[in-house]
Specification:
299 residues, alpha/beta, 4-stranded antiparallel sheet, globular, binds adenosine-5'-triphosphate
Length: 299
């Protein structure tokens, strides 16, 4: 579990990037930070691995204050995937993936072998191993970025708009692969995006920011869709335009909240079957399959 407590970040030039931010990020789930540009999402992400340190407040990973951990060691133990993949242009794919293990002293042969296995994991042909990043498509480069993020077998994977620069079809593929990976590898993923559709697709927990870094709402996608906190959230998630107008469909296993595209947005429980209408969903317990269990904190 990662916990932000009353965290504020003011940069030396006076910019208040994060103001009194608190959040619990459950282990082995995907938490998505989504919202306006400049609302502090990247700064929050970077405070987890000490690329940025808070001005006040605390950030704990499994009860340990990150400020008590050495920044370099912490950074090398947490996966980080960024937009445009951040690959080193003069290094082959396999060496890009092996960068951090090599820095940590893993033998070259072993690091390369593991890198090839990671190429399998993220759906890259091993025949691409000796290419340079510029010889790959954007989607392939992002997969290399994900493989590199996984190379130290981190418990935590930070992803800063990792799929922002690829076309919608490739993006959809990469999102699906991330969901599969998460199911198989059980990482704690913190994911930053501008795209609310991406946030709802990937997030077990979604945190919506408004301008000024204020948290407008946090919850499971189903909770947010069923009960937007205010007009800003309703507009941001499209609920006000009916784009996501929710209705309840009965299935053999219970009541399922379905959006206007026919996608299941969540499962309703706590209301008698057949009686839950969208407006009543507020009163019901809404949960998304795979959402964090209460009190779970192991990583
Ligand atoms: N090193 C820095 N020095 C001064 N101000 C900074 C620095 N890094 C970020 N900021 C400012 O802090 C605020 C939050 O930036 P941040 O990058 O965290 O937002 P964001 O929500 O990730 O934005 P985007 O979605 O556009 O990437 C912005 O006003 C930004 O200009």
């Amino acid at each position: 579990m990662i916990e932000f407590r009353d965290v504020t970040k003011r940069f030396p030039d006076g910019t208040l990037a994060v103001d009194d931010f608190s959040l619990v990020i459950p282990s082995r789930r995907i938490t998505v930070l989504v919202g306006s540009s400049g609302s502090g999402k990247t700064t929050i992400l970077r405070m987890i691995n000490r690329m940025v340190d808070p001005t006040s407040g605390s950030i704990e990973i499994d009860g340990q204050d990150v400020l008590s951990l050495k920044p370099v060691a912490l950074r090398r133990s947490i996966g980080y995937v960024m937009q445009n993949s951040g690959l080193l242009p003069h290094r082959k794919v396999v060496d890009n993936i092996a960068t951090v293990p090599l820095l940590k002293g893993v033998k070259k042969k072993e690091a390369r072998e593991h890198a090839l296995e990671l190429m399998d994991t993220v759906g890259l042909e091993r025949s691409l191993a000796d290419r340079y990043p510029s010889q790959l498509s954007g989607g392939q480069q992002q997969r290399v970025g994900v493989a590199r993020g996984l190379a130290v077998d981190p418990n935590i994977l930070l992803m800063d708009e990792p799929f922002g620069a690829v076309d919608p079809i490739v993006r959809d593929d990469l999102q699906n692969e991330l969901l599969h990976l998460q199911r198989d590898l059980d990482k704690t993923v913190v994911f930053v995006t501008h795209d609310i559709d991406e946030a709802f697709k990937l997030g077990d927990q979604v945190v919506i920011f408004r301008k000024g870094g204020i948290v407008a709402q946090k919850g499971t996608p189903a909770e947010i869709l069923a009960d937007p906190a205010d007009d800003f959230v309703a507009s941001f998630v499209g609920a006000d335009r009916g784009r996501r107008a929710l209705h309840v469909e009965e299935t053999p296993t219970g009541s399922v909240l379905v959006d206007s595209d026919g996608r299941a947005a969540g499962v309703l429980s706590g209301s008698p079957r057949g009686t839950a209408a969208p407006s009543e969903a507020k009163a019901a317990t809404v949960s998304v399959a795979g959402a964090p269990a209460q009190g779970e904190d192991a990583s």
